[in-house]
Amino acid sequence: MARRKKIYEGKAKILYEGPEPGTIVQYFKDDATAFNAQKKDVIEGKGVLNNRLSEFFMTGLNQIGVPTHFIRRLNMREQLVRQVEIIPLEVIVRNFAAGSMSKRLGIDEGTQLPRPIVEYCYKDDSLGDPLVTEEHIAAFGWASQQDMDDILSLALRVNDFLSGVMMAVGIRLVDFKIEIGRVYDGDFQRLIVADEISPDSCRLWDMETGQKLDKDVFRRDLGSLTDAYTEVATRLGVMPKNAAPITKPTLIN
Predict the structure, then answer these.
(1) What is the set of domains in the chain, with CATH numbers?
(2) Tens digit of each residue's pLDDT (9 = 90 or more) over 202-227
């Protein structure tokens, strides 16, 4: 489709004006970043994989009644989504200790948690997306108590869905983060899952070997990020096993 006005460019995606009011075209880049963009690289094919995987997860959530911003995939790198007002929080659901939780609390990576733990980070790259409590969220007006109840419910439903889907293909869902957006129907507001769900935003470990199949491969220099993401896509049936190699696109302005 023809290029439209660029609205926003982030670390992994570009947002363009959509073809209809209330829509946005979300373009997935090949850029990979870690440690708040202190580590950067371009990983050929990453955007294609994340577009297809996010489509798969968002479609599945829509089908079970968990509302998302996803409308349809447009091509290998773009999808049409609803325009939303993003709540300035990263919502993190943890099933096993890993990453920052292990460092903060001194818990060995891979330790199963007594129950899923939901954490919130304030979305601000310049501050390093700091961990915040519901007290902060209420005090600064980022979300109401009703919003928080709805966010918690959405996060746990996403966790149930993703955990089951991943377990069926031999992958452990260690943790993930989502973003939540507000949409308005007249005066009525509701919250929906937005942004993306992909190995960029999840920790995924092979259940037998413990092999990492997520962005920790890039963070910790554990091998090919494209190979790891392709393994996830192949197991889920998103990309056929005999698919042609993913090549870097030529952007048409």
Answers:
(1) 6-84+225-235 (3.30.200.20), 85-206 (3.30.470.20)
(2) 999 999 999 999 999 999 999 999 99
